[in-house]
Automatic annotation (TrEMBL):
Pfam families: PilZ. InterPro entries: PilZ_domain. It comes from Rhizobium aouanii. It comes from the Bacteria. The lineage of its organism: Bacteria, Pseudomonadati, Pseudomonadota, Alphaproteobacteria, Hyphomicrobiales. This is PilZ domain-containing protein. Residues 10-97 form the PilZ domain.
Length: 134
């Protein structure tokens, strides 16, 4: 037996990114970081409380993206999902971001600094990265 939970799935894949900007709702503005982005929406991590309910219209301003408008679809633990208003300007701005500014986000492995003695007895700093065993 299958149930229809009225959950709408994403129409396009999102790509991870690190873009900083702010979200404006009515007269308030909150700094945010865009975690992932697609032509139809984005997930944001908020730096402070955003007093807007699901379904509220918001504006996102970011240097590399410009101004985008959308609707809050979900909120959870300081993160917000926004569905962009469907218009050619928003799609052009996002495709321009991916064409000119987007850099692939990869996880950063921790490094530790080791002291290695040189040939003449002086200490040299050396960065050691952990190796992964398969």
């Amino acid at each position: 037996m299958t149930r229809n939970l009225k959950i709408t799935a994403r129409k396009t894949d999102r790509k991870s990114c690190r873009v900083f900007g702010h979200v404006k709702y009515l007269n308030s503005q909150v700094d945010a970081r865009i975690l992932n982005l697609s032509p139809t929406g984005a997930a944001l991590e908020m730096k402070g409380p955003l007093h807007a309910a699901s379904g509220s219209k918001v504006r996102i301003e970011a240097e590399n993206l410009g101004l985008l408008e959308g609707v809050i679809r979900w909120k959870h633990n300081g993160r917000v999902g926004i569905q962009f208003d469907v218009n050619s300007n928003a799609r052009a701005q996002i495709s321009s971001y991916f064409r000119f500014f987007h850099k692939e986000v990869r996880p950063v492995l921790a490094t530790r600094q080791l002291a290695i003695l040189g040939a003449n007895g002086d200490r040299k700093a050396h960065l050691a990265t952990p190796t992964l065993k398969s």
